[in-house]
Design a protein that fits this description.
Radius of gyration: 21 Å
CATH architecture of the largest domain: 3-Layer(aba) Sandwich
Strand content: 25-35%
Structural class: alpha/beta
Order of helices and strands: EEEEEEEEHEHEHEHHEEHHH
Largest sheet: 5 strands, mixed, barrel
Distance between the termini: 49 Å
């Protein structure tokens, strides 16, 4: 008999599905490749000690990256995206921008958390660079996972009642953040990894953890990344997903303005007036060229 369940972990063709009673079972797709993502509601049927996924319920969103060769999906049906970066190693503003654009395109709200506030000099420099983002509607939090930080409770409040995907490059503290928010998550990770036979989960698997017993608040840990393609977006649509550009693009003389060379361009006029950050405009130029040529830099 078919049952409805939630995908809480994924690795290759294997996924872990949680039923309404809280029990979990490894399930496989009927095809060669699993299309189910963490956060998906799936219908599955039991097969001895495992299960088979029969169908996936329609998604309200999907967060993914896409380069010129392949698509990498992170999770589905999420409420928000937490982008975790650190003062050290120095974060890439280009990669941050790519992730924010992907979130805008998927209509998923996002916010930024800068870790390692205990490293004063590099933290102050990074914090200064990030000051342009709150004005675009992206909340910004400071954090030190090695020491208590006054903003931690405020950040945690923003997670309550939400399914939050934690995204970031390797080495910024994603696992530490989850272990701090959910004592025992590391043990759960080890159990899932052993069950799925996927080895250490830190670079290979995506896992969902319930923060509360009522299963209203969830954190999704995702593998670290070093590149983030956004080839799902056409070059001429890029500015639609950059809030600081979008607010000025309506002033452009031409409806199909690229914001690169046309006369009477509202975006470039805003840039000249200091209303658009020069670093952001340089990233836009790079991304526009990349998406026009079909390459990832």
């Amino acid at each position: 008999m078919k049952q409805l369940g939630l995908v809480v972990s994924g690795h290759g063709r294997h996924v872990m599905v949680e039923s309404a009673d809280g029990s979990r079972r490894i399930c496989r797709s009927r095809g060669k490749k699993s299309l189910a993502l963490v956060g998906d509601q799936v219908w599955w049927t039991p097969t001895q000690d495992e299960g088979t996924i029969e169908s996936i319920e329609p998604r309200r969103n999907e967060f993914y990256r896409q380069d010129e060769l392949r698509t990498k999906s992170f999770a589905a049906n999420i409420d928000q995206l937490l982008i975790l970066i650190a003062a050290e190693p120095e974060f890439s503003e280009t990669q941050l921008t790519r992730a924010l654009i992907a979130a805008q395109a998927a209509q998923i709200k996002a916010f930024i958390v800068l870790n390692k506030s205990d490293l004063k000099a590099p933290f102050d420099e990074a914090w200064s660079k990030l000051q342009v983002y709150p004005s675009m509607g992206y909340p910004l939090f400071a954090l030190s996972l090695k020491h208590d930080h006054p903003s931690y409770e405020l950040l945690f409040q923003s997670l309550k009642g939400q399914m939050t995907l934690i995204l970031g490059p390797s080495g910024v503290g994603k696992s530490t953040f989850i272990n701090t928010a959910i004592p025992g998550a590391h043990i759960a990770t080890q159990e899932i990894s052993q069950a799925l036979n996927s080895g250490k989960h830190t670079t290979t698997a995506t896992n969902l953890y319930w923060v509360d017993e009522e299963h209203q608040t969830a954190l999704i840990d995702s593998p670290g990344f070093q590149s983030f393609g956004i080839h799902q977006i056409a070059a001429n649509e890029l500015s639609h997903f950059m809030p600081d550009f979008k607010s000025h693009a309506s002033s452009c003389r031409f409806y199909n303005c690229t914001h690169l060379h046309e006369p009477n361009c509202g975006v470039r006029e805003a840039l000249a007036q200091g209303l658009i950050n020069a670093s952001r405009y340089k990233i836009y130029q790079q991304l526009f060229e990349e998406l026009s040529l079909g390459r990832t830099y």
